[in-house]
Amino acid sequence: MNKSWISPTVDQVGVEERVARFNTRSIKKESKMQGMLLALNMIDLTTLEGKDTAGKVKQMCYKALHLADDIEGLPTVAAVCVYSNHVKTAKKALQGSSVKIASVATAFPSGNSSRKIKLEDVKIAVTNGADEVDMVISRGEFLAGNYNFVFDEIAAIKEACGSARLKVILETGELSTLDNVRKASDIAIHAGADFIKTSTGKIQPAATMPVTLVMLQAIKDYYDETGIMIGMKPAGGISTSKQALQYLVMLYETLGEKWMTNEWFRFGASSLANDILLQLGKEKMGVYYSSDYISKD
Predict the structure, then answer these.
(1) The CATH number of the domain where 198 resides is what?
(2) Which one of 196, 237, 260, 292 is most buried, by most CB atoms within 10 A?
(3) Is 135 part of a structural domain of the chain?
(4) Catalytic one of 44, 121, 134, 275
(5) What CA–CA distance (Å, rounded) separates 204 from 218?
(6) Is residue 198 part of a domain?
(7) Which of the following is catalytic: 118, 158, 167, 197?
């Protein structure tokens, strides 16, 4: 596609002021409990290491379905995220549940490969049974100003996904400015992303509230223009229930109630699940669980 990409300039001071206000919201006890349960249901449990084994993937899938069996009324997480060669293992372990299977692809996490190999990577993930595909954009091409290259690549990968939903990872820690984050968000959305996602979790900084707010605003502007909803996934660096609740406040006040489900918002933060379980356990038992009772993966 040959298009001149012009995105709104981001008011960084304004973004930081809005984020500061989100962080001062007071959340009452009942609302806090509901928020933590919602956040738990929005988590994508993830293992993306070179040492991943079938056993580790099975363990993570068991945790996805049995977060804490002694706490009544817990939801499952939204999805598990694995490399494409582990999708079949996850699919078998999660059979009959509502938990989705996401697979990273496109030469994750660097994205430095040919389009042919990236498309083959996606096709393997989908053939193996992935419900969702997490791709990374070509940051080098983006930073060189080759925006149409980035658009065309996302569009081709979206087509290769078939019925699987596509999450497009911007790797915002490498984009340097909020203006770049906004432009990359706009390109991904117009190229066919079902979700836009901050980070791979391999680069710091990963998800931050200012970056997430800019991405949410891009989603809002697109929805106001077209009526089409796009999902959002901050990933990496969100490890406490307090942080998750602040993100949910920002989500609600920016996009509204429609987005307050795991169909449209996810957390890419496996350690977040552990903190929420500790907080929920305290509400039930009156004391904190020992972290030794909660699996780290």
Answers:
(1) 3.20.20.70
(2) 196
(3) yes
(4) 134
(5) 22
(6) yes
(7) 197
pTM: 0.93
> What stretches of the chain show up as alpha helix (H) in DSSP?
12-22, 29-41, 54-65, 87-93, 115-127, 139-143, 147-161, 178-191, 209-226, 241-255, 270-285
Nearest to 91 by CA among 51, 64, 73, 120: 64
134 part of the active site: yes
Q: How many other C-beta atoms can be found within 10 angstroms of the C-beta atom of residue 295?
A: 14
How much of the chain is in helix, strand and coil states, percent to nearest 5?
A: 50, 10, 40
Q: What angle do CA 122, 229, 239 make, to 5 degrees?
A: 70
Interval 98-117 mean pLDDT = 96
Known catalytic residue at 297: no
Identify the CA nearest to 37 among candidates 79, 67, 80, 81. 67
Q: At 26, which amino acid appears?
A: S
1 band by pLDDT with thresholds 50, 70 and 90: low
SS3 call for 30: helix
**Distance between CA 267 and CA 236 in Å, rounded?**
8
Domain total in the chain: 1
Please write the tens of the pLDDT for every residue from 162-208.
999 999 999 999 999 999 999 999 999 999 999 999 999 999 899 99
Token pair in block for residue 200: 């791979």
> Angle between the 178-191 and 147-161 helix axes, to the nearest 10 degrees?
40
Checking if the pLDDT of 297 tops 80, the result is no
Measured distance CA(148)–CA(187) in Å, rounded: 8
- Catalytic residue check, 233: yes
Nearest CA-CA partner of 60 in 47, 76, 73, 70? 47
- Of residues 186, 194, 233, 275, which has the active-site annotation? 233
Is 123 contained in some domain?
yes
Domain range holding 189? 12-293
